[in-house]
Design a protein that fits this description.
By secondary structure, this protein is α+β, with helices and mostly antiparallel strands. The chain has two domains: about 35 residues; about 170 residues, no CATH class. Helices cover about 45% and strands about 30% of the residues. The protein has four helices and eight strands. Strands 1, 2, 5, 6 and 7 form a five-stranded antiparallel sheet that branches. A three-stranded mixed sheet has the order 3-4-8. β3 and β4 form a beta hairpin. The N and C termini lie far apart (about 60 Å).
C-alpha cells in the first residue's frame, strides 16, 4: 500500500510538471509564431481598438486649477496719454486627458524574455473645464477702461491657453502613462498568449535607449 501511494504521488508530481512544461512550451510556440515586429504591433493594435472602441488608448489624466492673468495696456491721444492698466484673472478647474494614438507607429521588439515597446508621442484631448467652479475677476480696474471687454478677451483665449498647459503638463504624467501602458500590454499578453513573466519595457517616443 505504501509503495502504491508513493508511486501515485510521483506520478502526480511528474504529471503536473509535464503539464506546466507543456503550457510553457505552448506559450513560447505561440509567441514565436509571430514573424515580425509589425505583426506583433498589428495584433496589439487590433486588440486595443476592439477593447477601447476607438483609435486611441487613453492612459492618464490630470486635475489642476489653472490661474491665468491678462494685463491690458492702452494709450490715447496719439499714444501721448497712458490710461490705467486693467488686470483680469481667470481661475480654471480643469482635467486633462492623455492618450496614445493607435494609428501612430508602435514599435515592438521581442528578445529572450524582454519585450520592448516604443510608444508613439503622447497626445491630449480637449481639456475638460469645470464650468460650475470657473471664476473670472477684475484684479485692477479703472472707470476709464472697458473692463468687460478685457474679461471677454481673456475668456476667448482660454481654450488656447489650456491646450498649451496640457502640453506643458505632459511631463507630470509621463511615468504614470508608462506604467499604465505596461499594465495594458501585459493584460493583452496574458489574454492572448497565456500567463508569462515577460519583462516589458516602455520607451517614450522622445526617449533614447
Amino acid at each position: 500500500m505504501l509503495k502504491y501511494l508513493i508511486s501515485l504521488s510521483i506520478f502526480l508530481v511528474l504529471g503536473t510538471s509535464l503539464y506546466l512544461f507543456k503550457d510553457e512550451i505552448f506559450f513560447l510556440q505561440k509567441i514565436t509564431e509571430i514573424q515580425s515586429a509589425e505583426e506583433l504591433s498589428g495584433k496589439f493594435i487590433s486588440y486595443a481598438t476592439k477593447l477601447e472602441g476607438a483609435q486611441r488608448l487613453q492612459l492618464a489624466s490630470l486635475k489642476q486649477t489653472e490661474i491665468f492673468e491678462k494685463i491690458s495696456k492702452k494709450k490715447v491721444l496719439w499714444d501721448r496719454l497712458k490710461l490705467p492698466d486693467v488686470v483680469v484673472r481667470a481661475e480654471v478647474p480643469v482635467e486633462y486627458f492623455y492618450y496614445l494614438d493607435l494609428n501612430d507607429r508602435w514599435e515592438f521588439t521581442l528578445k529572450d524574455n524582454v519585450l520592448r515597446v516604443r510608444i508613439p508621442p503622447i497626445k491630449n484631448l480637449t481639456p475638460a473645464l469645470n464650468l460650475d467652479e470657473l471664476k473670472f475677476s477684475v484684479e485692477q480696474g479703472s472707470f476709464l477702461r472697458n473692463e468687460k471687454q478685457v474679461l471677454e478677451e481673456l475668456r476667448q483665449t482660454l481654450m488656447g491657453l489650456l491646450n498649451d498647459k496640457a502640453r506643458e503638463n505632459q511631463i507630470l504624467i509621463r511615468e504614470v502613462l508608462k506604467k499604465n501602458a505596461e499594465a495594458f500590454i501585459r493584460n493583452w499578453l496574458i489574454r492572448d498568449y497565456g500567463e508569462r513573466e515577460l519583462i516589458i519595457q516602455i520607451i517614450l517616443a522622445d526617449e533614447e535607449v
